């Protein structure tokens, strides 16, 4: 019985610790855009998730300027937004998501860099095959083709 007494004491001492549920470590996961992705569409979909306990709304910055686009929370902790050309997108972008942890009040930031080159193209017409023809076509060599 003497050998079992320390074991029983350990179990009794650990019971309150086992009653606590484990909370996930607060993290920010950016699902899109992905790192170094080259986006060719006119709009950029931003999706990220806050895992763990955070307070307040997350802050999204693009190229170190705060964005004024609305964030949509589809499920608790999962946010999305759509960025367009008027939101400050450039050829090379840095997207940062910041949120305040509940446990210590510290700000946590996660970032991703991505390229943006929408499908718009302008070039000088040098080949007669590129000329616009038809009853309303009045193009000539040297014009710009959009």
Condensed summary:
The chain is 11% helix and 42% strand. The protein has 146 residues and is mainly beta. The strands form 3 sheets. A 5-stranded mixed β-sheet has the order 2-9-8-4-5, with no helix packed on it.
Number of strands: 11
Shape: rod-shaped
Helix content: 10-25%
User: Structural class, judged by helices and strands?
Assistant: mainly beta
Number of helices: 1
What are the low-pLDDT stretches, counting only 5+ consecutive residues below 50? Answer: none
N-to-C SSE string, H for helix and E for strand: HEEEEEEEEEEE
Strand order of the largest sheet: 2-9-8-4-5
CATH superfamily of the domain at 24-116: Immunoglobulins
* Estimated share of beta-strand residues: 35-45%
Radius of gyration: 27 Å
CATH class of the domain at 24-116: Mainly Beta
Give the distance, in angstroms, between the N- and C-terminal Cα atoms: 90 Å
**Sheet with the most strands, sense and barrel status:** 5 strands, mixed
Give me the CATH architecture of the domain at 24-116, please.
Answer: Sandwich
- From the 3D structure, determine the CATH topology of the domain at 24-116: Immunoglobulin-like
Average pLDDT: 83
Notes on the structure:
The mean pLDDT is 83. Strands 2-9-8-4-5 form a five-stranded mixed sheet, with no helix packed on it. It has a four-stranded antiparallel sheet with strand order 1-3-7-6, with no helix packed on it. It is built from one helix and eleven strands, in the order H-E-E-E-E-E-E-E-E-E-E-E. It is mainly beta.
């Amino acid at each position: 019985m003497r050998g079992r007494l320390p074991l029983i004491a350990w179990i009794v001492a650990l019971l309150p610790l086992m009653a606590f549920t484990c909370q996930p470590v607060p993290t920010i996961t950016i699902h899109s855009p992905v790192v170094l992705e080259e986006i060719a569409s006119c709009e950029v979909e931003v999706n990220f998730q806050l895992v763990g306990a955070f307070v307040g709304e997350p802050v999204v910055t693009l190229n170190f300027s705060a964005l004024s686009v609305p964030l949509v929370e589809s499920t608790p902790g999962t946010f999305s937004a759509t960025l367009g050309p008027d939101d400050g997108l450039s050829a090379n972008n840095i997207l940062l998501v910041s949120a305040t942890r509940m446990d210590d009040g510290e700000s946590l930031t996660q970032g991703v860099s991505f390229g943006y080159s929408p499908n718009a193209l302008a070039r000088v017409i040098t080949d007669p095959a590129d000329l616009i023809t038809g009853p309303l076509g009045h193009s000539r060599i040297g014009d710009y083709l959009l």
